[in-house]
Write a structure and sequence with these properties.
- It is a single chain.
- With 272 residues, the chain is of the alpha+beta class.
- Helices cover 34% and strands 18% of the residues.
- It has 10 helices and 13 strands.
- α1 links the parallel β1 and β2.
- α4 crosses α9.
- The protein is globular and about 60 Å long.
Length: 272
Amino acid sequence: GIYNLCLAGGIFTNVLINKRLYETNYTKKIYVHPGMTDSGLTLGSALFHYFQKNKKSRRRKNDKIYLGPEHSNEKDIIKEIRRLKLTFSKPKNIEKEIGLILSKGKAIARYSSAMEYGPRALGNRSILCNAQDDKVKIWLNKKLQRSDIMPFAPIILDKYAHKYFKKNNKDEYCSKYMTIALKVKKNIQNKILGVVHYDGTARPQILKKKDNNKLYKILEYYKNFSGQTCLINTSFNLHYEPIVNTFYDALKSFKLMKLEYMQCENLLIKSK
């Protein structure tokens, strides 16, 4: 008799398991906590204690995912950029500039605003790249020092998602937090080869403007320049390392990756 399913714990990092649960006729809604690792279980324990102590439940919708630290002292960032012998500029419209760079097939590392809560990079500690080229799985994984079989995930604006994925309102929260695999429509699969798994699925982040306005603008500019609506969004980290937290982490990783471009708050950094 339970039709709304709320899940947390490490097993639910498996997006195919979540997909199977999503597809059953026994669920009306499915919610996978964005911190679906042990960090989600600890939050659940705290809430359970609260309910027990207060003898009442509390319903509150939480749409905020960017709960981590941010470091926006530009002077400190510039000092570190110069120490690492990188070059930088400060575009008047950095989202537009990034959209243009992406439309040329370049990858860009993005360090902006507060860090995401949970294990998924949701745009603020991400590497963005064109999703059309199947070879991106080889050259980008090589730069990130990852195995060339490691898949990438797509990010797409909410108003275009129905054209790409077989979905319904069950997956609203899962696809927002990149915690579920969805079937990619057959007529679309060859257009986003960089993010489609062998079984024809992908693990999308479907982005709403209210969730991350700056990131939303990047995708809009990218569409204006390229005509494409979907990008690769992979976590900003080297293999076996955690997602970058501070701008020191970000700049160090960027240099080791030998990527060409990086956004660090309002600065656009270019490797020599």
